[in-house]
Amino acid sequence: MKATINWDSGKAFSYTSNSGFKGFVDGAAKDSDDAKGPSPMELVLVGLGGCTSYDVVSILEKSRQKVLDCKTELKAERADSVPSVFTKIHIHFIVTGENLKESQVARAVSLSAEKYCSASLMLERGGVEITHSHEIIEATA
């Protein structure tokens, strides 16, 4: 896997991902209305959310659970000193479906956290405390 990063201006950089997607990452995202994209740390958090969400939905579908939606909310805390690394991240899954089994949703979250989500495992090995929770919403007709 590879990526290319090019300095645009100020704290903004354009990127091209391994799969050819292009975008911006901007260190000024939190300080400026003119930011061209999310901050690098926001992208790390989004990457974690995407990785674990993919796992959870995939595991549930393989378990023949009828998933109609999965929303994942992440809340992160960072160190007060430089480097301002993530110290804690809480991941909350809101899974909507038909007759979802609590045990299957809990299992999917656990398997993602402990076995499949590369981003999560990498961050935890780096000292980030990651916790999980979930809720199930029964789809209405």
From TrEMBL:
It comes from the Bacteria. InterPro entries: KH_dom-like_a/b, OsmC/Ohr_fam, OsmC/Ohrsf. Transmembrane segments: none annotated. NCBIfam families: PRK10738.1 (NF008009). This is Putative redox protein.
